[in-house]
Amino acid sequence: MSWSSPGGPGHSRGDGAVAAHAPAKVNVSLAVGPLRDDGFHTLHTVYLAVSLLDTVTVRPADRLSVTVTGEGADGPDPVPTDRRNLVWQAAELLAEHAGVAAGAAIEVHKTIPAAAGLAGGSADAAAALVALDALWGIHATRGDLTGLAARLGSDVPFGLAGGVALGTGHGEQLTPVLARRQWHWVLGIAEGGLSTPAVYAELDRLRAAGRLPDGTAAPESGPVLAALRSGPTAALAAALTNDLQAPAISLRPALRRALRAATGAGAAAALVSGSGPTVAALADDEDAALRLAAVLAGEGVFRTVRVVHGPVPGARLVG
Ligand code: ATP
Q: What is the ipTM of this complex?
């Protein structure tokens, strides 16, 4: 199957630019297995793609360059614009795979905050694969792109797939999940990010000290999958879990107050998204989400709040 856009080459702009966008994710369940001898953890997670999108625009050029605008472009720890940026690595990997020269001017417009537990860098990498595939006329199969995505990072295949999916292995082995409806969320975005490796290290430390239960190698995703199938917000609210929440709170104690603020303001439930520090607050419907966002914005607990819904599709070309 070819990974082509519905509009085909019509997506290319006048100056030869091609753009793709990709969504942030919330982990509605995230179980982290015990630390293995190879230093990794086995994950068992259910991803939900939400309507907070980054846009990656690529233009013909002789060599690679990356510019970043929007969330995280400035400040003390800006998103890198060199080879450390995942879109750069995506470009090199795709070019090598297809045997083409890695030349492109890549512009990343971020609305997904960096180091927020929303997999923004992974979304950008997925969008870059789709946009560069079109720019370079590669027509890679979806399977090929997914294989490249998994080499770039555990969350990148889900950035391509979108929707709702069960992720196992390191999170990169995906099984699509049936979801009957849209859910409405308020994302409470904190000042400053949290390093994902630091949160895992804190989880290991707390487990080794007996302050958190050990992870199980084969955890139970049944309740959250049933809730996603059956629909009522209360069922999903009751099934939300995240093993990284306690270590994220341990590193950033203000998160406890932020979670309480969300439930106190009427959220059906609230949890830390991935490794944090973003708080994902589940609302009963869109109106409730808008009301919740207004209350939370007024309380000033978060740097900013965003009203989103999901599931939404994964990386795709935009016209
Ligand atoms: P993870 O995907 O590890 O769970 P996250 O979702 O919390 O992390 P990201 O926004 O993906 O966080 O960024 C993590 C780090 O990756 C950043 O601090 C930054 O240094 C680096 N990075 C590389 N490429 C990008 C990118 N395109 N956007 C944001 N960060 C990037």
A: 0.95
